[in-house]
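User
Here is a favour to ask of a fellow structure person. I am asking you to supply a protein in sequence and C-alpha cell form. Please set it down just below, with no commentary around it:

Assistant
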Amino acid sequence: MDETQLKSLISQTENSQGLEMAEAIRLLQSGDTATLTNYLEDAQKNIKNEITRSKSDMFQKVYGDLERASSTERAILYYKLRNQDVDNLQNQLYQRMKGQSDAVVLDKDLALRQYQINQWSSDDKLDTLFVYQWSFLVFCLGVVLMYLVRTGFVSAGFAWSTLIILLIIIGLITVNRSQYTKNLRDQREWNRRRFPRYKELPTPPCPNSLDGLTASYNELKKYTNNAQANASNYAQTVGPALSRAG
C-alpha cells in the first residue's frame, strides 16, 4: 500500500466516523429512545466485535511469531548438533591419523633399534672371532714350534720365548678389546666411541669492556668543565684590568 492509498483510507475512516457521530447526535436530538437504544446496542456489539477481532489478530500474530522463534531456535539447535557431529568426525579422523603416524614412527624407531642391536651383536661376534683367530694361530705356532724342538731344528729356549711373546700379545689384544668395548664403546652404536665428560673449567668473570670507556669519558668531561671554568675566571679577572689599562 503506497502513501496515496493510505491517505485515502484514513480520509474514508474519518468520514465514516464523522457520519456515525452525526447519526448519534441526530438520534439524541430526536428523542427516539428505542432507536437510540438499538443504535447503542449495535455500537456496543461493533466495539465488542472489533476488540475481539483485534485480540484474535494479535493472538494469531504473537502465536505466529512464537512459532517462527521456536523454528529458528530448533534450527539453531540442529545446526549446533550437526557442528558437533562434524567436530566429532574430525576428531575421530585426527585420532586415527595420529595413531597411524605414531605407529609409523614407533615402527621406524623399532626398526632402527633392531638394526643397531643386530649390528652391535654382529660386530661383537666378529671381534670375538678375531681374538679366537689369534688364539688359534698361536696354538698352531706352538704346535709347530714343539715339533721343531722335538726334531732339534730350533732350541727349546727360542720356542718358549716365542710362545710367551705370542701369549702376551694375545693377552694384550684380549684385554684391550674387552676394556674398550666395556668402557669406551657406545652401547647403541658399535662404531661410536663414548668420550669421558670432564667438569667445566671455572672461568674468571670477564670485565665489562665499557668500563674503561666510561671512565675515560668521565675524565674528559671533567677536564672540559675545568677548562671552561678557568677560561670564564680568566675572562672575568683579566677583562676588567685590560679595560682600565686602555
Observations:
- The chain has a mean pLDDT of 78.
